[in-house]
């Protein structure tokens, strides 16, 4: 189908040379502000959403100049995937030549469409948008999620989330929440076997050339398929098969160790772990951001009250000993003021820590309910992919999954590695002034 813009503005009655696949017709006709499209590879979601942005921008007739954008996890990614389409389909509507340096086009009604990468989230702050497309939202930095609503609220902008499943990450959460609120959300899932975009012959070719998990994820939109490049994929599959990922009872006679990835501008992740002989039981997990240390002290206190356990040691990375310029105080000292005496894990390579976790997972149980968020992060923790070499790098991709994975690495090194020098934990009889008494 050809899309025609017929609103009273400088672009009235201009035909956009976009022949829409019928699978996306309902998407273009939607009246809802929010949309999420879960589509198999090759379904055409990038073309559809780029053209939808152009259509919305062309219809813009407000008193202010329109601002529209597409954001992908990386700048080079959005440039490679969407920039050519944006220039091609917007060409008849342009007021000037496309701006290559900033990946933007200006339409004759003064509406601008621009492409961004979320790898520089500070660049997104303060932007007000009338329309937005988020490509592979689950692979973006967590800080991006915090700026989306402010970007859209001032102008009551609309937003579309698009992608292919890659585990139960932030994109999965968006899909799940959208299904619960069909009054506000438009939802569309296109699986290769039922969408009618690819021929049966092409689907079979792809199936033969790919591992089952990868095919299920990329072409059948499976949220359950193993994540490509995952560090702990094999270990977690074995744990699942051996029924070591399930609800666990907490043994109140066994002390609970905590291990922390302490964020400043991003998330803090805490695992709660019991060690019984060589067994490791991950009995709880907590993660949040944007709060002070007193919040986490209260969390420790509340969990002790709720479950009746007592605490052992608290493991932290080596950099908590560094003094901050603003306060002149290290986070190690700040923790002590809150009644937490930290066990500092020495510096070590990322890969050494990953290997330590792999060994530990072979004798580990994980509570599937209390640790759901941390468990999903472990499933998603994966290698970075080198687009030029078409191969996986050795180092990890740092995204939302890094906080939980880093936290567990500190424990695997700090508690299990006999080469680690640990300071015995001092029992605190009374908390410092103003601190919550959470210790045993």
Key descriptive features of the protein:
440 residues; alpha/beta; Rossmann fold; Nucleotidyltransferase, domain 5; 2 domains; seven-stranded mixed beta sheet; six-stranded mixed beta sheet; 14 helices; 33% helix; globular
- As for the CATH topology of the largest domain, it is Rossmann fold
* Mean pLDDT level: 86
Helix content: 25-40%
Radius of gyration: 25 Å
What's the CATH architecture name of the largest domain?
Answer: 3-Layer(aba) Sandwich
Please tally the helical runs, counting DSSP H or I stretches of 4 or more residues: 14
Query: What about the largest sheet?
Result: 7 strands, mixed
Strand content is: 15-25%
Strand order of the largest sheet: 5-6-4-7-8-3-9
Helix/sheet category = alpha/beta
Q: Residue ranges: pLDDT <50 for 5 or more in a row?
A: 4-8, 418-437
Gap from first CA to last CA = 69 Å
Choose one word for the global shape: globular
Number of domains: 2
Query: How would you name the CATH homologous superfamily of the largest domain?
Result: P-loop containing nucleotide triphosphate hydrolases
Record field, number of beta strands: 17
The level 1 CATH classification of the largest domain is Alpha Beta
């Amino acid at each position: 189908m050809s899309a025609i813009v017929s609103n009273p503005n400088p672009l009235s009655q201009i035909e956009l040379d976009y022949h829409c696949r019928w699978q996306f017709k309902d998407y273009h006709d939607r009246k809802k502000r929010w949309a999420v499209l879960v589509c198999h590879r090759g379904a055409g979601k990038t073309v559809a959403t780029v053209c939808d942005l152009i259509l919305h921008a062309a219809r813009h007739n407000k008193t202010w100049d329109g601002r529209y954008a597409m954001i992908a996890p990386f700048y080079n990614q959005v440039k490679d995937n969407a920039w050519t389409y944006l220039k091609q389909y917007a060409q008849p509507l342009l007021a000037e030549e496309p701006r290559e340096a900033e990946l933007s086009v200006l339409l004759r009604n003064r509406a601008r469409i621009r492409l961004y990468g979320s790898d520089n989230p500070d660049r997104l702050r303060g932007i007000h948008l009338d329309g937005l497309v988020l490509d592979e939202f689950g692979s973006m930095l967590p800080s991006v999620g915090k700026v989306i609503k402010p970007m859209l609220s001032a102008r009551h902008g609309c937003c579309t989330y698009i992608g292919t499943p890659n585990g139960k990450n932030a994109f999965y959460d968006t899909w799940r929440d959208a299904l619960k609120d069909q009054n506000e959300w438009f939802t569309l899932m296109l699986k290769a076997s039922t969408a009618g975009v690819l021929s049966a012959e092409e689907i079979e070719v792809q199936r033969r050339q790919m591992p089952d998990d990868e095919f299920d994820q990329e072409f059948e939109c499976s949220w359950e398929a193993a994540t490509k490049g995952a560090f702990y994929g094999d270990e977690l599959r074995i744990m699942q098969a051996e029924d070591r990922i399930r609800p666990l009872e907490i043994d109140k006679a066994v002390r609970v160790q905590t291990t922390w990835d302490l964020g400043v501008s991003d998330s803090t992740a805490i695992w709660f772990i019991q060690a019984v002989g060589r067994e490791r039981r991950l009995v709880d997990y907590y993660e949040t951001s944007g709060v002070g240390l007193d919040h986490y002290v209260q969390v420790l206190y509340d969990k002790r009250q709720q479950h009746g356990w007592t605490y052992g040691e608290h493991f932290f990375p080596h950099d908590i000993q560094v003094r901050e310029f603003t306060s002149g105080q290290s986070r190690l000292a700040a923790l002590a003021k809150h009644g937490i005496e930290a066990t500092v894990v020495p510096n070590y390579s990322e890969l050494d820590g990953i290997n330590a976790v792999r060994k530990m997972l072979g004798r580990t149980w994980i509570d599937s309910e209390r640790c759901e968020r941390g468990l999903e992060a472990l499933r998603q923790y994966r290698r970075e992919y080198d687009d030029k070499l078409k191969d996986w790098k050795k180092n990890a991709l740092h995204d939302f999954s890094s906080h939980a994975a880093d936290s567990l690495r500190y424990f695997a090194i700090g508690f299990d590695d006999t080469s680690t020098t640990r300071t015995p934990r001092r029992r605190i009889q009374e908390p410092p002034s103003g601190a919550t008494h959470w210790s045993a």
